[in-house]
Amino acid sequence: MKLSLEQLQEYNQSLFSSHQEEFGFLANQLSKEGNDVNGLVEKIKAFQIAVPSWALGAGGTRFGRFGIGGEPRDLEEKLEDIGLLKALTQKTDSVSLHIPWDIPSDYASIQSKAESLGISFDAMNSNTFQDYGQPHSYKLGSLGNAKKSVRDQAVAHNVEVIEIGKKLGSKGLTVWLADGSNFPGQASLRNSLHWTQESLSEIYQAMPEDWKLLVEYKPYEPNFYHTIIPDWGTSSLLCKSVGDRAKVLVDLGHHLPNTNIEQIVATLVYQDMLAGFHFNDSKYGDDDLTTGSIKPYQLFLIFCELISGSEDGAQAWESISWMIDASHNTKDPLEDLMQALEMISISFTKALLVNREKLTACQMEGDVVGAQECLQEAFQRDVRPLVKEARIQLGGAADPIGHYRKMDVRKKLIQERGAESRSTGL
Ligand code: LRH
Ligand code: MN
Ligand code: MN
């Protein structure tokens, strides 16, 4: 389904005067404080986040899955859903594909569909954590498996994903390894790391020169004793050993509780080793909840590190990839993604407002209270009118979820695709 532009504009018109009032008030305040409001709006407009193809349907848990209805049945319909998100939020213009869930059956038609919707192909994701009819099983690992034949097969799969990505114009490969062991003694900790390094190196060699390798880490699940790449340090070590276009991908859910993720981000940025993000939120583990729904302050602090890192010349903003990686059990996935895109934009905007000169002065003088006040001043501010203004200027909806509901989009998708339609993915 496609949204009518006239209806969207009509809807925006009905909200326009209250937005004008709110935006005018905030813009005035910010200008008085010495901020360049137009500059801020332009930065918000330019910040775009990729949506994962696997987050457009109901994910469920291992205990059950409750279909949402109207889920995209193939890659074209996934692109259509991202097109809807783009039209409403103007916050996403690319998709991150997962192979084999999204193997295009017809490249020309996928490309023309993507083009017509203004969507490009972000980093590709390989999958060696499931069996899908290939000769060797990944039950006991893939790139770090003790058997060379299994490792070769897993490397070949990644090379195939690169080939698919090349045809679509992608510029990156994300590797997440489920490899590890469930019990002490099951695997050689050192050898499995070494084999993983060798396999990653082969994959790296198969990448075009203008591609980057994004290497995820995760402390546990699906293996519960040891994971070969459990943390950013191991990921960084492997990346450094394979080549300078290999960098560490931070998935916010892939940390033990209470980990200081902003510090990890700062350390990676310090070394120019941050590949990008998988945004989500978590209370306990890899919960894949809506970004910013549980720990909005953490998200803000992460953006503070990213902005200061790029302004200080540690790592260029443009070198970082931005992606969501979420799973939906109870919410309509499209509504959930709209909430995530909004929360990411809000956190980014708040971090832009931090008075960095003042903060640095407080740090240098040992003014602990002053430093905290500095962060709180930006974090506590309601920046939604700024984010809304950026969205309206790009032609998006003043209130994306409001318009989505008013237009009965899910109901129409169910009519079009059926109540039982099921999307591929987790
Ligand atoms: C692993 C992970 C990884 C996968 C995705 C489906 O937990 O975060 O990024 O590719 O989930
Ligand atoms: Mn992830
Ligand atoms: Mn995950």
From TrEMBL:
Keywords: Isomerase, Manganese, Metal-binding
Top-level taxonomic group: Bacteria
InterPro entries per record: L-rhamnose_isomerase (IPR050337), Xyl_isomerase-like_sf (IPR036237), Xyl_isomerase-like_TIM-brl (IPR013022)
Xylose isomerase-like TIM barrel domain ranges (all copies): 108-288
Cross-referenced Pfam families: AP_endonuc_2
GO molecular function: isomerase activity; metal ion binding
Protein name in UniProt: L-rhamnose isomerase / sugar isomerase
Organism this protein belongs to: Algoriphagus halophilus
